[in-house]
Amino acid sequence: MAERLSGNAAGPSRTVDLIGLIRTGRAGSRAELAKATGLSPSTVATRIDALIARGHVAEVGEGESRGGRRPRRLEIRADAGLVGCIDLGVDRTSFGVADFAGNLLAEHHAALDLAAGPEIILTSATARLKDMVEQAEATGSGRLRGVSVGVPGPVSSADSRIVAPSRMPGWNGTNAAEIIQRELGVPVIVNNDANLMAAGELLNGTDPVTYPHQIFVKAGTGIGCGIIAGGELYKGSNGWAGDISHAAVQGAPAVPCSCGRTGCLDVLASGTALVREMQLQGHDVQTVEAMIDLARDAHPAATGLLRGAGVMTGGVLATSINFFNPNRLVLGGVLAGSAVFVAAVRSTLYSDCPPMATAELVVEVARHPQTGGLRGAARVMLDDIFSGEEFRA
User: Beta strands 72-76 and 57-62: pairing type?
Assistant: First the structure.
């Protein structure tokens, strides 16, 4: 399955590259496409006419005039098809339906107990998504073309199987794509949820500033990380790139981790770890949200633990920042809703990284805290569709 988030990886001569430029907003007319790709205006016109005839691209409105006739703006046909999205979570699972322009048409959130096992959960999730898709299809938005799924655990890029997920008991070795495809009969892509959130937060060509090199950190029940390199989702050779959950925290206590080692970031700074520590200290706290609320009221234990989690997370990220040199770090997940946590991550980075690594680094919280996973799921599926043979001519 393709990982590209913008079509320009193998030369500017293919139709897929024209689609990529239109999707990301980097070119919105035939003239701009010719300039961006170096293709002749006649070649661009021929390929765009073919895309229009096949119902993938539409000419809408008029663009800005630069001395001659105003050019017609090009857009992806939103009603050319639908993408189903499922973002499985330990505390909450999100469902969405997006059109071919990447617009989220519908969303639904529900609590599903992943411990019930893959067959039960995926069958139930597929049934819910199917209902949403049928409602969207009834409005004339096209037919379902694919499903994109995020899971809170590692996913092998070789065979799409979930591998040793610490918060999904009974899911090891599960091929979620096969189960869902059996129910819906369309292509299915499965990714780690942090990867999809990274894709969902990626800025595009229509934004004032773009950040092609990014690190996204999901700090919630667990801790995950996704990497955007050169405007593309980077998963590494096996799909584990960016997994900081099992990075050792310097000077940390020997708390056992599911990986068999001790002192990993996940067992010390995740939401689960912080709630457990609050309870060990005698405080009646059941959720991370409740702990964050206490910190807002200046509760010393909650504030101290959140600050400590931010320091540990920032310390681990400092190595990644120094090595990768991104221009944007995005903090997502429930812990990103804590000003104390975010401030501690930021201050630790500036303390532990050399000035040249942070001189142009932007540290922000997620733009789409509730729907980033769904948006990223849609984007990854659409990347795969628009990278297919149909668009390679």
Answer: antiparallel
Give pairs for 164-171: CB < 8 Å, separation 24+.
164/258, 166/222, 166/245, 166/258, 166/259, 166/266, 167/90, 167/114, 167/221, 167/222, 167/272, 168/114, 169/114, 169/115, 170/115, 170/117, 170/118, 171/114, 171/117, 171/118
Radius of gyration, alpha carbons of the chain: 22
Q: From first to last of its 393 residues, what are the pLDDT tens digits of the chain?
A: 434 444 334 444 578 889 888 988 888 899 999 999 999 999 999 999 999 998 899 998 765 655 556 678 999 999 999 999 999 999 899 999 999 999 999 999 999 999 999 999 999 999 999 999 999 999 988 899 999 999 999 999 989 999 999 889 999 999 999 999 999 999 999 999 999 999 998 865 556 567 889 999 999 999 999 999 988 899 999 999 999 999 999 988 999 998 999 999 999 999 999 999 999 999 999 999 999 999 999 999 999 999 999 999 999 999 999 999 999 999 999 999 999 999 999 999 999 999 999 999 999 999 999 999 999 999 999 999 988 877 765
> Residue 87 sits in which domain range?
81-199+372-391
Number of Cβ atoms within 10 Å of the Cβ of 290: 14
Cα dihedral sign for 47, 53, 56, 61? Answer: positive
Q: Is residue 5 part of a domain?
A: no
Domain count, the chain: 3
Q: Is residue 7 part of a domain?
A: no
Asked if residue 153 and residue 263 are part of one domain, the reply reads no
Task: Note whether 125 and 92 are within 8 A (CB).
Answer: no
Please tell me whether residues 268 and 360 are part of one structural domain. yes
222/320 same-domain check: yes
Same domain as 229, residue 186: no
Same domain, 67 and 187: no
My answer on whether 192 and 113 are in the same domain is yes
pTM of structure: 0.89
